[in-house]
Amino acid sequence: MTSERPHSALATGQLAIAALFVTALMTAQLTAAKILEFVVPFSLPVTGNALVLPGAALAYALTFFASDCYAELFGKRAAQRLVNVGFVMNFVMLALVWSTIAAPAAQSSVDPAKFRTVLGASTPVVVGSLLAYLVSQNWDVIAFHRIRELTDGAHLWARNIGSTASSQAIDTVIFVGVAFYVFPRYVGVGVVLPGDLILALVVGQYIMKLLIAVFDTPLVYAVVGYLRSREYAPAHPSAAD
Length: 241
Fold this sequence. Notes:
This protein has 241 residues and is mainly alpha-helical. The protein has a single domain (2-229), classed as Arp2/3 complex 21 kDa subunit ARPC3, CATH 1.10.1760. Helices cover 73% and strands 7% of the residues. The protein has helices at residues 5-31, 56-74, 76-102, 112-119, 123-150, 156-187, 195-215, 217-229; strands at residues 35-44, 48-54. β1 (35-44) and β2 form a beta hairpin. It is globular, with a radius of gyration of 20 Å. The protein starts with a helix and ends in a 12-residue tail after the last helix. 34% of the residues are buried.
């Protein structure tokens, strides 16, 4: 009975982190179309005294926290499987959302047009977010383990911040570029935004994500340290696991 407890706890911890990853990912997909603006008490390059970013940035930044915890605890291959499963779940979520939009509404329902506007992400946003996700999340796993190899398994903070900083830059450029520049200008689908606003979106989103990566580092230490101290996970999982 005693020997089974670490395995049971490990499975619970693995499930909880995976659930957090998928939940944050689905939330990001549903909130991507709203543009946020945060006023800051100082002036920044390009954005001035405001951070402008897509609504998905807050939830999506949480996925990197979850994937870094997962990679540290369960290894590179397990983290890549999580990323790829999450990618497929995007299509499951979209299928469920659009099937609900297409279904007939009862008279007591909320306005179907408003429902479609809120939940029906536009094609540029969907394509941009999925492409950015596939590239950046896989890069995050690769960079995380590469930094781990270079530091011989030490300095968890370095691989957490380093992998997230580089992958978030890739994600931000791809998502904003595809959703708000490539599709509107070259495909004719979506809203054409002025160049200064597109640049502000890139800078604002990246700064916000980078700040979250820095501040979530103690939480990564807490999660990893707790599970390892309880013998819930191996101290040094193989990169090939």
